């Protein structure tokens, strides 16, 4: 208090913020001038700038009449630079070094804390600086002098001997053809110092006109340093508390942190991490760890973090594999990047890594040679994929690095079901890209990879028994199809009592879950994070409450109706695939996640006005039973209803039909002559989704 009384406030000054030159004001720092050079109106001969680089070049005159100027040295420098001849390209036309060039460099990278101030009539006007440039002498004229010297020496050596000139007339040359530049080589070239220097040199100079200190234009521009309006609306930034105002004037300098130990550029402390948004925190953690249980992720995010928000964010950057979260491939390999080993583009790498992740949803073990054979990628890339999520075991293969997280699967069945639907969509894409065979889709048994007997728990025995039942179910189904084909070929009665066999075609109960998988196997009891026995429990596909039945039926009917209005003819397999994709797009907890069986789906198809078309496919067809069940919308209310019904009658008699037969039949039944283009349009609209099963 005593110090404050000794230092009283004698004057208060109003501070205003001028905006007219907000991004146009630069501060030039000139070097200490020699006695022969004065920074006045006469000395500035020319000026030019490169705006993108904030680089300025000034040409200033030297007072050659000053007694401190050494005339002999000025003449010698001009002679070395220009030689004896003078023309338009000469640097010094007066044969005397009478000017000096100055080039700028940025004095500070962050100039937001600097401002130019003007004090007038008890008011202080501040204008933020856009840049601070230090001007230094440029000695490019010395390079020009060296070049002239080398040219003169070369000319003298060339004139010494005419015999040498004759010998130089004929020279042997070697022609080389450059190889195509790879993406990796192009990135190295773009980041090189030579390329950056070339890019900077390509920017054109913008010539400026210099106005002196006493020029009327300079006086006009100086008026912009004063605030144009003194109202509160113009200076809202200055209506702040003293501490905030001081922080605006003197923000914490980044340079002060240089004394602290520097961490690598790719390392982020937990304190820094928790200052980021939740989505960025999860993305950075998953990108670095690559595989993590949900419980570990919650512990890293700190107490008080909402688990629902975390679940929403984690699904954007990771996929569920055996109850654990594995970072998505497109997060590790962004677009327009390539492999550091082979130069393969990111799209191919993502596809190969997705295949490895999908294999781990089927089994705990993956063989490296099998992955390389399917993906056709180099061994280094495949090894990187496997090291992200698995551990190599001698004489066994690669085992998924984390145990199955049963707690997460039990707590979040809706998330597990949603992820399962997403994996079904990824599997369909991989089957088309890699032409996967049956052995790729069927997981290998763990016993084949074990060199010694293992202890089997009771739960595993139950899973093995259920897997064996499913395998027997597939064999019985094949035998039935074979028996059915033999009966048709022998023209026996198709109405024989086969009710006991048809139980294998359709689930007996409406509550049995729909088979949304294109494969069956033991999987150690794992189906993309679901235990095999859990796939049919009440948690996902059990008994529905009475109030939910109508809502489920309405949602299912709306899906079936909209689907058949778009495609008209669908196989059961394609319909189930579209239904899985529809489920994947729904939010967690939707009513359709309560469980839809095959029978419920087929009954709803028939209730919406569709009919099953019994296409007589050949017995030796490789199509699955679901692909042989064809459903069609009988009346869509468009102009092609009659044509479509005629086509369905044709294909109910034969699966292979010539186009001319179709065209003649349509003309007879519809009473109009259709050309080839119209017939093709009807076929494309009606039978696009089963074009791979029928033959035209």
Automatic annotation (TrEMBL):
Any Gene Ontology CC annotation: RNA polymerase III complex
Domain DNA-directed RNA polymerase III subunit RPC5 C-terminal as annotated: residue spans: 444-694
Annotated Pfam families: RPC5, RPC5_C
GO biological process, any: tRNA transcription by RNA polymerase III
Stored InterPro entries: RNA_pol_III_Rpc5 (IPR006886), RPC5_C (IPR045576)
Positions with biased composition (Basic and acidic residues): 146-155
Region (Disordered): 146-169
Source organism superkingdom: Eukaryota
Protein name per the record: RPC5 polymerase
Highest classification ranks of the organism: Eukaryota, Metazoa, Chordata, Craniata, Vertebrata
């Amino acid at each position: 208090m005593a110090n404050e009384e000794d230092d009283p406030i004698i004057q208060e000054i109003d501070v205003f913020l001028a905006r007219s030159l907000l991004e146009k004001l630069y501060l030039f720092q000139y070097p200490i001038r020699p006695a022969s050079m004065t920074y006045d109106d006469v000395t500035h001969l020319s000026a030019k700038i490169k705006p993108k680089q904030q680089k300025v070049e000034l040409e200033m005159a030297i007072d050659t009449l000053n007694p401190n100027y050494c005339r002999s040295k000025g003449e010698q420098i001009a002679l070395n630079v220009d030689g004896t001849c003078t023309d338009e390209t000469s640097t010094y036309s007066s044969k005397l070094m009478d000017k000096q060039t100055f080039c700028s460099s940025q004095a500070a990278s962050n100039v937001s804390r600097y401002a130019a101030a003007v004090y007038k009539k008890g008011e202080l006007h501040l204008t933020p600086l856009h840049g601070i440039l230090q001007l230094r002498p440029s000695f490019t004229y010395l390079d020009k002098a060296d070049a002239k010297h080398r040219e003169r020496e070369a000319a003298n050596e060339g004139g010494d001997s005419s015999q040498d000139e004759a010998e130089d007339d004929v020279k042997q040359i070697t022609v080389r053809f450059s190889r195509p530049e790879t993406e990796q080589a192009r990135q190295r070239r773009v980041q090189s110092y030579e390329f950056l220097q070339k890019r900077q040199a390509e920017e054109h100079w913008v010539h400026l006109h210099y106005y002196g200190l006493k020029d009327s234009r300079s006086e006009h521009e100086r008026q912009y340093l004063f605030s144009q309006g003194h109202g509160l609306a113009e200076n809202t930034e200055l209506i702040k508390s003293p501490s905030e105002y001081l922080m605006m004037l003197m923000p914490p300098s980044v340079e002060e942190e240089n004394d602290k130990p520097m961490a690598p550029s790719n390392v982020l402390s937990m304190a820094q991490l928790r200052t980021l948004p939740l989505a960025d925190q999860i993305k950075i953690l998953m990108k670095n760890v690559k595989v993590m249980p949900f419980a570990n992720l919650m512990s890293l995010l700190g107490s008080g973090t909402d688990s629902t928000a975390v679940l929403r964010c984690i699904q954007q950057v990771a996929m569920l594999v055996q109850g654990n979260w594995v970072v998505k491939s497109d997060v590790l390999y962004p677009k327009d990047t390539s492999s550091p080993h082979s130069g393969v583009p990111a799209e191919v790498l993502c596809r190969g890594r997705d295949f490895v992740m999908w294999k781990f949803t089927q089994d705990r073990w993956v063989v490296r040679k099998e992955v390389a054979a399917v993906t056709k990628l180099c061994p280094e890339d495949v090894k990187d994929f496997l090291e992200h999520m698995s551990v190599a075991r001698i004489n066994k293969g690669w085992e998924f690095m984390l145990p199955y997280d049963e707690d997460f699967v039990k707590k979040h069945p809706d998330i597990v079901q949603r992820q399962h639907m997403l994996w079904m969509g990824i599997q369909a894409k991989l089957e088309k890209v890699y032409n996967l065979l049956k052995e790729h889709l069927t997981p290998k048994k763990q016993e084949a990879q074990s060199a010694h007997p293992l202890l089997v728990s009771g739960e595993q025995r139950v899973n093995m028994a259920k897997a064996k039942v499913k395998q027997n179910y597939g064999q019985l189904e094949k035998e039935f199809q074979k028996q059915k084909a033999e009966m048709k070929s022998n023209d026996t009665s198709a109405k024989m009592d086969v009710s006991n066999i048809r139980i294998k075609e359709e689930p007996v109960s409406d509550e049995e879950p729909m088979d949304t998988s294109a494969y069956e196997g033991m999987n150690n009891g794992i189906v993309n994070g679901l235990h095999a026995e859990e796939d049919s429990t009440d948690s996902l596909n059990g008994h529905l409450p009475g109030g939910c039945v109508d809502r489920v039926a309405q949602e299912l009917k709306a899906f079936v109706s909209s689907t058949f209005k778009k495609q008209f003819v669908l196989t059961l397999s394609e319909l189930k695939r579209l239904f899985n994709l529809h489920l994947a797009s729904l939010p967690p907890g939707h009513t359709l996640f309560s469980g839809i069986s095959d029978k419920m789906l087929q009954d709803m198809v028939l209730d919406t006005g569709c009919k099953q078309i019994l296409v007589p496919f050949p017995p030796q067809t490789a199509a699955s039973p679901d692909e042989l069940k064809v459903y069609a919308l009988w009346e869509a209310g468009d102009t092609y209803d009659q044509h479509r019904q005629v086509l369905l009658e044709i294909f109910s008699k034969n699966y292979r039909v010539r186009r001319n037969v179709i065209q003649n039949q349509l003309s007879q039944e519809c009473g109009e002559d259709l050309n080839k283009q119209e017939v093709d349009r009807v076929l494309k609209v009606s039978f696009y989704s089963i074009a791979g099963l029928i033959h035209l």
